[in-house]
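Sanity check

After download, print the first record. It should look like this:
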Amino acid sequence: MSGSWAPLVVLALLASAGNVAVDGGAPAAKVHRNHGRFTAGSWKPAHATFYGGRDGSDTRAGACGYKDTVAEGYGLQTVAVSTALFNGGATCGACYEVRCTDSPGWCKPPAGAAPAPPLIVTATNLCPPNYQQAGDNGGWCNPPREHFDLTMPAFLQIAEEKAGIVPVSYRRVPCAKVGGIRYTITGNKYFNMVTVTNVGGAGDVAGLAVKGNKRVKWTPLKRNWGQVWQTGEDLTGESLTFRVMTSDHRRHTSWHVLPRDWQFGVTYQAAKNF
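Expected C-alpha cells:
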C-alpha cells in the first residue's frame, strides 16, 4: 500500500477538568501507564525470511487491519507471522525480539564483531500457508511451523539478504510505544469499525468495550478481523470511552478519548498507555 495515507491524529489530554484536544503540533502530555508490566517470555526456535522491498514497500498493510504501519507508528520494524502464531488475528500488535542463530556465514554481525542491537518487531500481518510446498521446502508458514516473515529492512538487521531464510530464536517482549493508545472509527452509525493501534505492554488487544457519556452503556465489541473491532451500536453524538484488555488480562480505560463531535476516519489518541 502506498505510504501517502496519513491519518489525522487528535491528542486527547485527560485532565481533571475534562478532555482537552490539541493539534499534532502542540507538545504531547506526559503518558501515564497502568500498574504492572508485561514481562518477556522464554526463548523459542523458529525460522525467518523476508518480504517486500528494501524500502518496506508492500508490507505496510495486511491481515491485521492496519492501514499504514509507518503512519500508525509501527514503522518498518514489523513482521508477518505464520498461522501458528497469528491465532486468527488475536496476536496482531504483539512484539517479538528476534535473533539470527546457528548461521555464522549469514547472521549479522559476523562472529567476533560487537553485538548488534536487539531486533524488536511488531506482528502486523499474516504469512499465509502454502500447501503446494512442503513445510521444510518453501512452505515455511505452513502449520504447525512458527515462522517470521520480516520486512526486508528488519531482516537485513540480523542476516544477509542472500541467506533467504535463517534459523532464529524469538521471544515475546513488552511493546514500547510513544504516546497513548489510538482509536479510529470507520463505517457508519449503524456499523462501527474500531481500529486500536499503538498499544503498549502486551500489545495485542484481546477485548474492547465502549461507553458513551449519555445513552450508550458499556458495550462489548466483537473482533471483525485482526485488530479491527465492530459494533452495531449508534455511537454518534457522544463522548466515547474505550476499555482495552490485552492478552495478559491487563485493562486500560481511555476516558472520553473521543469528543462528542468525533468524526469517522479520524484517529484519536489517549494520554494513557499500558
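If your output differs, re-run the checksum step. Summary of this record's structure: Confidence is low (pLDDT under 50) at residues 1-7, 11-28.
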